[in-house]
Amino acid sequence: AQSVAQPEDQVNVAEGNPLTVKCTYSVSGNPYLFWYVQYPNRGLQFLLKYITGDNLVKGSYGFEAEFNKSQTSFHLKKPSALVSDSALYFCAVRNDYKLSFGAGTTVTVRA
Amino acid sequence: GAVVSQHPSWVICKSGTSVKIECRSLDFQATTMFWYRQFPKQSLMLMATSNEGSKATYEQGVEKDKFLINHASLTLSTLTVTSAHPEDSSFYICSARAPPGTGNSPLHFGNGTRLTVT
Question: Is B31 within 8 Å of B17 (Cβ atoms)?
């Protein structure tokens, strides 16, 4: 089965600094990878996806992610974090028509 | 477009009672919906796949008699937590499989329901 792992429970950065949220994947065949963000007591909002093509994927709210096949990684990045980026972030991989999520990473951006 | 509405957003019930959560696709038809359960600051665990007009498919370890799922129309799936107990307290999120042309995400999510059983 396809799976993703998020090795960090928490990431803390200062506003204006670069933000990276790590994700590694384990799939057979070509991976369909996604990033979602969740604010407190809300559902998930889509940020970006990788299906095929360019390894650098640009998404919503200034986020981007780099697909690295040799390292089996799909890290989420933002060059300059905002306090409003503080939330819970999930990496996900598509399994047939279902999504399997990582454990989530809580991002805290301090002013 | 492609909005999923989940109701109620929060509910408190007494132990032993049943609670129904609704998930509606407002502007598209959803033949397949998914129900997830989430504990605080943890990942989403898929509970079941709800298919319109047929029985739901439950994930391993999920009690089908406790978590009743009905998907009687193309726009509505319901999750009923029967004889709720405090350990059922959790955040429940539904999602609908996205039809073609409704965006980049394969799923559209509701805003979740916070269930507290006292």
Answer: no
For chain B, the straight-line distance linking the first and the last C-alpha, in angstroms and rounded, comes to 37
Does the beta carbon of A40 lie under 8 angstroms from any beta carbon of chain B?
no
High-pLDDT (> 70) share of chain A, %: 100
Q: What is the pLDDT of residues A28-69, one digit of tens each?
A: 888 899 999 999 888 899 999 999 888 999 999 999 999 999
Q: Does B101 score more than 80 pLDDT? A: no
- How does DSSP assign A9-77, residue by residue? SEEEEETTS-EEE--EEE-SSS--EEEEEE-TT--EEEEEEESSS-SEEE-GGG-EEEEETTTTEEEEE
Q: Find the chain B residues whose C-beta atoms sit closer than 8 A to any C-beta of A.
A: 4, 6, 9-10, 32, 34, 41-44, 46, 49, 91, 93, 95, 97, 103-107, 109-112, 114
Type of residue at B69: I
